[in-house]
Amino acid sequence: MLYAIETQEITKHFDEITAVNKVSISVKPGELFGLLGPNGAGKTTLIHMLSTMTEPSSGSAKVWGYDVALEPGSVRQNIGVVFQDTTLDDRLTGRENLDLHGRLYGLDGKTRKKRIEEVLSLVELADRADVIVKTYSGGMMRRLEIARGLMHHPHVLFLDEPTLGLDPQTRLHIWEYIKKLNKEEGVSIVLTTHYMEEADHLCNRIAIIDNGEIVALDTPEALKNSLGGDVITLELEKPDDISRLCEIYQKNGCANIVSKKMNEVFITVKNGERQIPHILSLASTAGISIQSVSLRKPTLDDVFIHHTGRAIRDKEVSEIETVGYKIRSRRK
Ligand SMILES: Nc1ncnc2c1ncn2[C@@H]1O[C@H](COP(=O)(O)OP(=O)(O)OP(=O)(O)O)[C@@H](O)[C@H]1O
Ligand SMILES: [Mg+2]
User: Could you tell me if 178 and 189 are in contact, meaning their C-beta atoms sit under 8 angstroms apart?
Assistant: First the structure.
C-alpha cells in the first residue's frame, strides 16, 4: 500500500536536545491526521523533516512514496505546507501571493489563473483577492496561506498550527475549510495543534506527542475510550488523604486513577453516574472527607494527562497572546 506518509524511527537532535525521538507513523491517503502536543513537543520539527526543510539525524521517512532524504525534489512537488509562522508577502495582494507561488511551481499562466480562482473560492477570499495582504485579518491571512498551499494540487498538505492565535469564531471557520478541502480536493492532511478540541473535531486519527515521542496514537474516540469510562473529579478536604484514597480505589478495583493535582483526584469509571454513590461511600468509610464531586466524559486532555502526568493547555494563553501580537505587529 502506498502511504501518504510513512516514517521509520525518524529522529532529530539539536545538539543535546532530542526534538523528535524515533517516531514511526503511517498516514493513509485521504486521511486527516493530527499531531497533538504541548509547546516544544517536536511537532514543527517533525513537519520540517517531512517537508524537507531539515534533514533527519537518523531514521527515514517517505512522503507520497518519495524518500525525504534521497528524493527531496519529488517530495516538494507533492506537498503543500502552511508553516507555523506566516510567510506571506504582506506588500502584495492575495492574488499576487498566489500567482508568485504558482510561478515558483512552474504552473503556466492559464493554469495559474484558473487555479487561483478555484483556491480563492475554496477559502472564500475572492472578494478580497486584490487588496494588499497587510490589510487582512489574522484569519484571512491563514485562509490565504491554506489556499496558497493548495495551488499546485499537492497530494499531502501540512498545516502547522493552522488556527494558532485566532479567535474561536475564526477558528471554527478555518476548521470548516480544512474539512472541505480534505473532502473536495481529496488531499491528505497532517496538521499539528496543541488545541485538543481542534484535533478531536478534525482528525481521523491523532498521534499524541510529548518530548519528541509518540505516547498514544488512535482515533479520537478510541483514545478517549481507552481511559475506561467517565471521568470523576473528587475534591478532598485534606490533600494529605489523596494517596490513601487512591490506594483504596485501586485495591477495590472500581476505578482507574488518571491523575492527582493538589487536592483533586481524577478517576475513570464505567457507568460513572451509577458508580458515584459507591465511590463516595468507600471514601466515607475510610473517614476521608470529599468536598465536591463532578462527572464528565473524557477529553483528549485527560488522555494526555494519563500518559504524561501533565495537561496540554498549561501554556496556551500566554502563547495565544504572543502570536496575536505577532500577527498584529506585522500589520503595522
Ligand atoms: N533550530 C533549532 N535549534 C535548536 N533547537 C531547536 C530548533 N528547533 C527546535 N528546537 C527545539 O526542539 C524542541 C521541539 O521544538 P518544536 O518547535 O519542534 O516543538 P513544537 O511541538 O512545534 O512546539 P510549539 O507548540 O511551541 O510550536 C524544542 O525543545 C525546541 O527548543
Ligand atoms: Mg511548532
Answer: yes
